[in-house]
Write a structure and sequence with these properties.
There is one protein chain. By secondary structure, the chain is an alpha/beta fold. Helices cover 43% and strands 16% of the residues. An 8-stranded mixed β-sheet has the order 7-6-5-4-3-2-1-8. α1 packs across α2, α4 packs across α5 and α5 packs across α6.
Length: 279
């Protein structure tokens, strides 16, 4: 991957219908091409199900980085780890992602049961119908919006689905360091996702020696002073600064390209993924 023909802006945090995005991998690629983006990374939650289709649709018009976003658990909080340039056919990676998907399905069934106990009109088949790929709490939130129980997805999480709410159900997850190892073993580059939102910066002393090579400093919900702080951490630990919109669809939160980095970040991630020694 030389990338010499594409030196523009890149959105390295994109979701598709393989997890909780509203657009198919092909639709996301076409949107990115129309916008003139140089690269996007397909980083669906706990699945690589959208990567092959996105790569096929790109057809040399745009760089598509094969990726994943893994949800982990650290001291009763979620920490997300992004993986870039992973070997998405790696059997160990796929086996672990399949296990995570099963945990999601089991958790969704328990959440629906809790919601029904409160008299809310939701069923598991209705949730499954909204999920083209891996099911998640977001699909339940979408259903609650459709049913008129809440007005927005954010309200669904704040009132019902978030940690400490009536229908919250914990699920089995990896630890952050385990996710880093999983990504590295699949020949990928591991990056701490949106630390200003879900935290994890306090784990760098553990994660960097384990193979973490980047930090997502550029993110729509990061205030300027937060971005500056995370850039400082990147400099201190020798990490790659990455960024992305966390795109989930045209009508959901942040538009594609809201947060971008230069193509040089893609090249650095590629080199890091191929480097088995210190990044």
């Amino acid at each position: 991957m030389s990338g010499s023909e594409n030196r523009g802006y890149c959105d390295l945090h994109v979701h598709t219908t393989a997890s909780d995005g509203a657009e198919t991998p092909e639709e996301v690629v076409e949107r990115a091409v129309a916008m003139g983006l140089a690269a996007i990374a397909i980083t669906d939650h706990d699945t690589v199900g959208g990567v092959a289709a996105a790569l096929a649709r790109a057809a040399q018009r745009i760089t598509v980085v094969p990726g994943v976003e893994i949800s982990t658990e650290e001291n009763d909080r979620e920490v997300h780890i992004l993986g870039y340039f992973i070997d998405y056919s790696d059997s160990s990676l796929r086996a672990k992602l399949a296990w995570l998907a099963e945990q999601r399905r089991a958790s969704a069934a328990k959440i629906v049961a809790k919601l029904k106990s409160y008299g809310l009109p939701v069923t598991l088949p209705e949730v499954a119908a909204l999920a083209s790929g891996v099911v998640g709490r977001a699909h339940i939130a979408f259903l609650l919006v459709q049913k008129g129980v809440v007005r927005t997805v954010e309200e669904a999480f704040a009132r019902w689905l978030g940690r400490g709410c009536p229908a919250y159900v914990p699920r089995a997850r990896l630890r952050a360091v385990e996710a880093v190892h999983l990504i590295r073993n699949a020949n990928g580059a591991a990056v701490l996702a949106h630390p200003g939102v879900s935290g994890g910066a306090d784990l760098l002393e553990e994660l960097v020696p384990a193979g973490l090579c980047g930090i997502e400093a550029v993110y729509p919900e990061h205030a300027p002073e937060q971005e500056e702080y995370f850039r400082g951490l990147a400099a201190r630990y020798g990490l790659i600064v990455t960024g992305g919109s966390d795109y989930h669809g045209p009508d959901r939160r942040y538009p594609l390209g809201t947060a971008v980095v230069r193509y040089s970040a893609v090249e650095r991630l590629y080199r890091a993924a191929r480097n088995t020694s210190k990044f």
